[in-house]
Amino acid sequence: MMRIVLLGAPGSGKGTQAQRLQAKFNVPQISSGDLLRDAVARKTALGLKAKAAMEAGQLVSDDIVLGLIRERLSQADAQNGFILDGFPRNSDQAATLSKLLVDIGQPLEAVLLMDVRTRTLIERMAGRRICKHCGKVFSVSALPSDMSCKSNSNGHELYQRVDDKEDVIAKRLDVYKSQTKPLIDHYSKLGLLKVIKGEGTLELITARMEAALAKSGSKTEKVKRKAARKTASNNSSVKPAAKKASRKKVAAKRKAAPVKKPAVVKKKKVVARKPARKTVKKSAARKPARKK
């Protein structure tokens, strides 16, 4: 079971690492951005409202995002866990998300923070390109030699997101610093936060994440076992009210009643008798006969 949030600034690599974890652990990556873009593409009522905010580099209202997330988590492939990417982005959203997850019986197990320098963030976002057909993310500075796309026989058709334009990037980073950074303290106090160094090769970053999740999972199991033992102990000590009252009544009666001391039985002193002497009867001595 894996129920985690990937936290970090735009361009920190959350989406790329989420895809790698998804492939390994077979749980869905749920990106609030992807959910919103899908709603925009389908021109739903929520999608149209979200479009203006996304193009301006602003956050979309919480009720829109939470509605899409609740709907996504109700699907069958999310019952064994999920990877939330891009949400929550502020403390209010975190509190609302926690309530939602508890309501549906899928509370968070860990929050991974991708720690990346600002300079690196700008380079990544400005050079990011996405396939229109499969949604795979690429960097223009390191395009692979194999550009075949399973969803399109002609290969990947790449485009740059509107919010990856240089004039929008600065706004997005300002929003992150002012609203999202407080989440670090929020999740740290809850004991859920794990800081991951987000620079290096993809394989190295993934290995760091897996190590952090392994420790988190071990800790979670210990907490669950401890809670189970505590619950079992509490349940075993709970007695019906009537039985408790009866027990107290009997104890009160015993306390009020005079305590009778048990009678002391005196032990008889046994005197050992001396063995009787054997008396030998002496037969009368015969007198000698008189002479006539």
Could you characterize the architecture of this molecule?
By secondary structure, the protein is of the alpha/beta class. The protein has a domain at 2-118 and 165-235: Rossmann fold (3-Layer(aba) Sandwich), CATH 3.40.50.300. Helices cover 49% and strands 12% of the residues. The chain is built from 10 helices and 8 strands. The protein has helices at residues 14-25, 32-41, 45-55, 62-73, 91-103, 118-126, 166-180, 182-189, 202-237, 241-256; strands at residues 2-8, 29-31, 81-85, 110-115, 128-131, 137-139, 158-159, 193-197. The strands form 2 sheets. Strands 2-3-1-4-8 form a 5-stranded parallel beta sheet, sandwiched between helices. It has a 3-stranded antiparallel beta sheet with strand order 6-5-7. A hairpin with a 5-residue loop joins strand 5 and strand 6 (137-139). Helix 1 (14-25) packs across helix 9 (202-237) and helix 2 (32-41) packs across helix 3 (45-55). It is elongated. The protein starts with a strand and ends in a 36-residue tail after the last helix.
- Give the total of beta strands: 8
CATH topology of one domain: Rossmann fold
The level-1 CATH class of one domain: Alpha Beta
Q: Percent helix among the residues? A: 40-55%
Poorly predicted ranges: none
Q: What does the average pLDDT come to?
A: 80
Beta fraction:
5-15%
Question: How far is the N terminus from the C terminus?
Answer: 140 Å
